[in-house]
Write a structure and sequence with these properties.
about 35% helix; 3 helices; about 25% strand
Length: about 100
């Protein structure tokens, strides 16, 4: 079983997702259910850390990042030995290249 760590940036992403759904999209009832789905996806990495798609499968550059798709979001993470670090949680329309590499 892998130890899953959520980075400070990913924690800020989750707070931003909650706030966006609640306030900008004016749907405060949907925010908890989306966050629960994201947490469940993140927690699933404890048992199956390599279940996500390698990011270099969709890029022409080698990278160790993997990602899971959950609703309209991608959970980007790195696996190392018995540890998984969730680096970012981004909406599908966000520029993940900029968010991950710049």
């Amino acid at each position: 079983m892998a130890n899953v760590i959520v980075s400070p940036a990913a924690r800020r992403d989750l707070i931003g997702i909650r706030d966006c759904i609640s306030y900008e999209l004016a749907n405060p009832d949907a925010a908890p259910s989306i966050l629960k789905l994201l947490r469940t996806s993140i927690e699933s990495l404890q048992d199956m850390p390599e279940r996500g798609t390698p990011l270099d499968a969709v890029l022409s550059v080698h990278t160790d990042y993997r990602f899971l798709v959950c609703e309209n979001y991608r959970v980007f993470y790195l696996c190392e030995a018995n540890q998984v670090e969730v680096v970012r949680v981004l909406h599908m329309l966000q520029d993940y290249m900029r968010a991950l590499f710049i």
